[in-house]
């Protein structure tokens, strides 16, 4: 059985967690393939709101297996808190949550290094979440990292102390270190290590191969967004992992031939957290309205998200590099009440028109060029049938499908899992 991939097409915060939760009933295994606790996948159901950072978003469904893949970096401190936060749901996590032995571990000193590095950049800071993600991946590629499988080895303490010593030496190079209490951080860290040991630590690539061969359906869950990809994102304002569909192969050990559908998720408008280019960003009342109505604050950091009109140049680019087969549009309800909806179809740079994403995306001389369509005033958050949607909203959908050349299979009209319209043409696929 082939696996499907679900990922974000913008700068993260697209609503991946909700859609994974909605689709989980159609899959046997949900597997996170990259990123770490910088992710904040928000799920709302039965009047409850829950934010997941490391654990796959299918965890609330009984009898579904959730795998933290080898491409993920795990902070034991945050992981332990996540597990404790799930206690009230009476989930059999020892049976439904599996962790790759090849996943790398974030040490307390990774977080300190992250803060020190970001502070040293001054006005050139990249907007890191300060979760230690970048330094952990640097150790991974530098072949110094500690993996989950190491915590059950006889030389675990030796490996930890060796890397700790290296980090402390690196910290000596920073003049203005942030205040930190390493002993306190280590106490919660080792508590998290003991929590990790309670779970089934597996050779995840072998497990997924065997389960797929048995006919089990796998949904690979990405974190962040394609425009934050280390290779193809708005570098250097990117994350440290591969957020594109290719990351599902390297982050889970899946063969490219095992990938079937690629589900691309995007907001009906665009948001971004932290520094970096954002051609369609708004600084007017429209941007303020998007922020307020959409409650645009980071689930992980609490930082206010920057808001702007939808950017089809960037969206087409993400669709192209991921090979997206189906689109899913989130937060459609936020645009209700706008008289006019603007859609960026091209860029202008030094009197030259670009229909594709140029190398110099970081240039502040990019001028977004817009098409404009009529908006809709109706509240769509309680609509459950596609044929009840406002005419102008349907026109917006058709416009996007025509320009993007990929069908929109799911429309989200609110945060709750029930506020989801699976379009008639696609219901049989889910």
Mean pLDDT metric: 92
N-to-C terminal Cα separation, in Å?
A: 15 Å
Globally, the shape reads globular
Main pleated-sheet profile: 10 strands, mixed
Strand content: 15-25%
Helical content stands at 25-40%
Give the tally of β-strands: 20
Quaternary structure annotation: single chain
User: What structural class should be given to the helix and strand makeup?
Assistant: alpha/beta
Number of helical regions: 12
Strand sequence of the main sheet, in spatial order?
Answer: 9-7-5-2-10-1-11-15-19-20
Rg of Cα set: 21 Å
Low-pLDDT residue spans: none
Protein traits:
ten-stranded mixed beta sheet; four-stranded mixed beta sheet; 430 residues; single chain; alpha/beta; 20 strands; 12 helices
Explained architecture:
The protein has 430 residues and is α/β, with parallel strands linked by helices. The chain has twelve helices and 20 strands. It has a ten-stranded mixed beta sheet, sandwiched between helices. Helix 4 packs parallel to helix 6 (156-171). It is globular and about 65 Å long. The two termini are 15 Å apart.
Task: Walk me through the topology.
Blueprint lengths: L2 E6 L7 H8 L5 E4 L8 E5 L2 E5 L12 E4 L4 E2 L1 H10 L7 H4 E4 L3 E2 L2 H13 L12 H9 L14 H16 L10 H16 L2 E3 L1 H10 L4 E4 L24 H5 L8 E9 L2 E3 L12 H9 L12 E3 L1 E2 H11 L3 E5 L9 E10 L2 E3 L12 E8 L16 H14 L3 E5 L7 E3 L8
Helix pairs in contact: 2-7, 4-5, 4-6
């Amino acid at each position: 059985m082939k696996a499907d991939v679900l990922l974000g097409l913008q700068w993260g915060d697209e609503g991946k967690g909700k859609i994974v939760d909605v689709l989980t009933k159609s899959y046997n295994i949900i597997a996170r393939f990259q990123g770490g606790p910088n992710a904040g996948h928000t799920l709302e159901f039965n009047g409850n709101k829950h934010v997941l950072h490391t654990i796959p978003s299918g965890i609330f469904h009984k009898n579904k297996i959730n795998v933290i893949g080898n491409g993920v970096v795990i902070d034991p401190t945050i992981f332990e808190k996540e597990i404790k936060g799930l206690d009230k749901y009476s989930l059999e996590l020892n049976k439904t949550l599996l962790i790759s032995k090849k996943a790398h571990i974030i040490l307390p000193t990774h977080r300190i290094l992250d803060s020190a590095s970001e502070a040293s950049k001054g006005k050139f800071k990249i907007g890191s979440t300060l979760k230690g993600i970048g330094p952990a991946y640097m150790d991974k590629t530098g072949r110094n990292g500690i993996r989950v499988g190491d915590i059950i080895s006889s030389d675990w303490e030796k490996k930890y102390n060796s890397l700790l010593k290296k980090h402390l030496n690196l910290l000596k190079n920073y003049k203005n270190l942030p205040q930190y209490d390493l002993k306190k951080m280590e106490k919660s860290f080792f508590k998290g290590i003991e929590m990790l040991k309670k779970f089934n630590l597996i050779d995840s690539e072998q497990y997924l191969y065997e389960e797929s061969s048995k006919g089990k359906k796998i949904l690979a869950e990405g974190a962040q967004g394609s425009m934050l990809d280390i290779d193809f994102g708005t570098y250097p304002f990117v994350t440290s992992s591969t957020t594109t569909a290719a990351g599902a192969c390297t982050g889970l050990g899946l063969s490219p031939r095992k990938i079937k559908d690629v589900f691309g998720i995007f907001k009906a408008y665009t948001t971004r957290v932290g520094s970096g280019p954002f051609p369609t960003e708004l600084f007017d009342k429209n941007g303020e309205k998007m922020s307020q109505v959409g409650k645009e604050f980071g689930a992980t950091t609490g930082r206010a998200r920057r808001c702007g009109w939808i950017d089809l140049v960037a969206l087409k680019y993400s669709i192209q590099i991921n090979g997206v087969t189906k689109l899913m549009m989130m937060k459609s309800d936020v645009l209700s009440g706008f008289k006019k909806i603007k859609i960026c179809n091209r860029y202008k740079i030094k009197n030259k028109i670009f229909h594709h994403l140029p190398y110099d995306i970081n240039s502040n001389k990019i001028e977004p060029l817009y098409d404009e369509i009529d908006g809709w005033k109706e509240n769509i958050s309680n609509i459950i049938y596609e044929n009840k949607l406002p005419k102008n909203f349907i026109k917006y959908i058709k416009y996007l499908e025509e320009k993007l050349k990929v069908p929109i299979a799911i429309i989200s009209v609110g945060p709750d899992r029930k506020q989801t319209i699976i379009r008639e043409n696609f219901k049989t696929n889910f």
